Amino acid sequence: MRRAIIGGTGVYGVEGDSRQETVVTEYGAVEVDILTYKGQEIVFLARHGKGHSVPPHLINYRANMMALKQLEVTHVYATCAVGSCNKEYAPGDIVVMRDFMDFTKVRPITFYEGQDGVKHTDMSEPYCHDMVERFYKESIKHNVKIKGNAVYVCTEGPRFETAAEIDFYHRNKGDVVGMTNVPEVVLAKELGLCYSAIGIITNYCTGFMSEEEMDHEGIMEAMADNKERITGCVLDIFSDASLNQESCRCKHAVMNL
Ligand code: HPA
Q1: Hey, which of 85, 102, 161 would you mutate to test ligand 1's pocket, going by the most ligand atoms within 8 Å of its Cβ?
Q2: Class for the domain spanning 2-245
Q3: Ligand 1 centre from 228 Cα, in Å?
Q4: Cα–Cα distance between 32 and 6 in angstroms, integer?
Q5: What is the pTM of this model?
Q6: How far is residue 134's CA from residue 106's CA, in Å, rounded to a whole number?
Q7: DSSP secondary structure, 44-110, as one string
Q8: pLDDT in tens, 105-127
Q9: What is the overall mean pLDDT for the chain?
Q10: Per-residue pLDDT tens for 215-255?
Q11: Once rounded to an integer, what is the mean pLDDT over residues 68-92?
């Protein structure tokens, strides 16, 4: 049994001894780092590939998640850089995802293409409540200031949204916008993994709160500030022997028809 961190924009590794491994899946090969923390092997996967080379709509999400499954991962914390369309959440803030809305268009979205009959996956709790609660608790020790929970709006990208789109997401109770959490969270559920996503707000979304253009340096500063504390927090959660899959329903989300 192993645990994993998926690093999004700005989070490309975790400090410590690690070795690289290539995992071959039926969807493609995936490079991961395997680090040892307090005697336990933790898998680190850079979502966009090493050196941030894969754009959001072309990420091989199925290969990434299947690679984790093949490595016997049961729990995944993912980091995501997101824009804010909620006035309570400002650049630099950290939020924990509680639900999502899917506005993606062309990416493969499932492992179930009919080969094993018809399957539907329960999405009443996309993010593992046990992992969310543990993150809130552990965050206090690590001085990670969580601003609140968030509904993640996933867009197709790679373009940013129009002001009219952001106005629509805001009116419909989206809190943060990104391009990668779907289908990642969905595929995790299809594989019976416990999954939680931590958002680092890098900007206000287009036309929201400020007319400023997207500032790449600002994004990187917000990430650098937070990433060590977040990964430290996650590693300590992973080293708690009481972390298991018994107090949630993540393992049982797929339904046969
Ligand atoms: N929109 C979509 N994805 C993003 C944004 C945004 O404003 N900021 C960081 N990722």
Answers
A1: 161
A2: alpha beta
A3: 21
A4: 10
A5: 0.94
A6: 34
A7: EEETTTTTT-S-GGG--HHHHHHHHHHTTEEEEEEEEEEEE-STT--TT-EEEEEEEEEE--SS---
A8: 999 999 999 988 899 999 999 99
A9: 93
A10: 667 767 767 778 889 999 999 999 999 999 999 999 999 98
A11: 96
Q: Tell how far the Cα of 166 is from the centroid of ligand 1, in angstroms.
A: 11
Q: How many whole angstroms separate alpha carbon 6 and alpha carbon 183?
A: 14
**Predicted local distance difference test score (pLDDT) of residue 213:** 59
First to last CA, the chain: 30
Residues near ligand 1 (Cβ within 6 A): 81-83, 155, 160-161, 177-179, 202-203, 205
Residue with CA nearest ligand 1 atom 4: 178
Mutate to test the pocket of ligand 1, among 48, 57, 82 (most ligand atoms within 8 A of CB): 82
**Domains of the chain by residue range:** 2-245
pLDDT at 150: 98
Amino acid at 175: D
